[in-house]
Amino acid sequence: MKKILSSVLLITISTLVSLVLAEVACHYILNPVDYLTPDREADAILRYKILPGSGGHDEWGFRNKEVPEKASVVVIGDSQSYGYNATLDFSYPAQLGKLLNKTVYNLSLGGYGPVQYDYLLSNYAIKLKPEYVVAGLYFGNDIADAYNTAYTLDHWKSLRSANLIDTEEGPETSMDDELIKKKKKGVVADIRHWLAGNSILYQILTKVVFKNLGSMGAAKNADTEKSVPFKNEKLKVEKILTPQARFRTLDTTRTKINEGLRITLDRLNAMAVTCKSNNIKFMVLYIPTAEYVLSDYFNGSVDNQALDNLQKLVNAENYMRSVVSASLAASNVPVIDGAEALKSKLGIVPGIYLPGPDGHPTASGYGILSETLAKKIAQ
Fold it and tell me: End-to-end distance of the chain based on CA atoms, in angstroms?
């Protein structure tokens, strides 16, 4: 019995030591921010924020290795600018820094919108004394997020219209709301939560080996109700499109979206004023929906019954682009068109988007956006 117990103890200790060494090696070789799940907490101004240093994030709670004393460029945006579907080094702000050979600070987080962008500019970005500030405006949900923030947080009630009549009940929701869910309670949930936020080895096992079983860190924006398969042999592209879900966040016949558009224009113009007063060059990067990028190839690539819904989405996105562009032009704010850049690379750069319903670009797609930005900044 003693020999058996000794053997078990030896095996247990050896296993634990091996796991610790493997974990140390993972932290040394890999970037923790690409694997660990950060701790989020509710915030009266930003809706939620990541705790400083949590999940490999920097001391401000953003996806950077550190907060620099100065940055040449600061990018402000949502999950698209944060860089979902790509590691830290392949988000478009990181790739932009490599192309420019300058410090680019990423001040982005999933679930944020134009209201948060303005706040982050005034309270964080200007501290870095940047030469440029880029706002990544994602047409997939930023307009809806502007409404949601202003009408659910009392801090922003000054942005609300005095006599707004909205027949729809409840706040507007976006596909990034999955990122703001409260953590589950219970001993097992607490253990898993701690492991997800501290153990790269645990995250690799759950995300890779067990195909994300129980992972809390994935962006699950798979609102696949009435989804539309897209397949184009010439482009070698397969994609699940979600036109109805996307159209809902761009439909200006809805009071929420019309109001969200007004708030978006107001906050972007406020950012322009702040940048001008601080001698910062302000520009806006248009980040399109995947549906908009693929829109020139709908015929023959999707079921004919889906064409009307897809065209409604494209028309709505075109309308939003025109209204925002007119407002920014009046404030002399340059626009970088990410849609045209991504469209121009279809069939040339493979894998710009994942095949499923996720609307975030891949590292390749982010690379196209970074190249387009770099050319504009270098002019």
Answer: 78
Is residue 279 left, alpha or beta, with left meaning phi > 0 and alpha meaning psi from -120 to 50? left
In this prediction, residue 2 has a pLDDT band, given cuts at 50, 70 and 90, of confident
pLDDT in tens, 155-171: 999 999 988 888 776 66
How far is residue 155's CA from residue 153's CA, in Å, rounded to a whole number? 5
Fold of 59-180+218-378: Rossmann fold (3.40.50)
Q: Would you state the pLDDT for residue 184? A: 62
pTM for the model stands at: 0.87
Q: Which phi-psi region, left, alpha or beta, contains residue 6 (left: φ > 0; alpha: ψ -120 to 50)?
A: alpha
- DSSP secondary structure string for all residues of 142-160: HHHHHHHHHHH-GGGGGGS
Using a 10 angstrom Cβ sphere, with 0-12 exposed, 13-18 middle and 19 or more buried, the burial of residue 349 is middle
Instruction: Give the residue-averaged pLDDT of 106-133.
Output: 98
C-alpha angle with apex 231: 225 to 234, nearest 5 degrees?
A: 160
pLDDT digits (tens, 9 = 90+) for 8-52: 777 778 777 776 777 677 666 777 788 788 899 999 999 999 999
Best CA proximity match to 361, nearest among 376, 374, 348, 349: 349
Two tokens at 125?
A: 């970005």
Tokens linked to 220: 């699950």
In this structure, which amino acid lies at residue 280?
A: I
Helix (DSSP H) and strand (DSSP E) numbers for the chain:
13, 9
Token digits of residue 341: 């850049």
Please calculate the CA angle 46-47-52 and round it to the nearest 5 degrees.
65
Beta bridge partners of 335: 284
Amino acid in the structure at residue 260: G
Domain limits, the chain: 59-180+218-378
Q: Looking at 96-105, 167-176, 310-319, 332-341, which range is the least confident one? A: 167-176
CB 269 within 8 A of CB 331: yes
Distance of CA 303 to the CA centre of its chain: 29
Inter-residue contact 309 to 284 (CB < 8 Å): no
Q: What are phi and psi of 36, to 5 degrees?
A: -80, 145
Cα–Cα distances in angstroms (integers) from residue 290 to residues 135, 179, 203, in the given order: 19, 20, 28
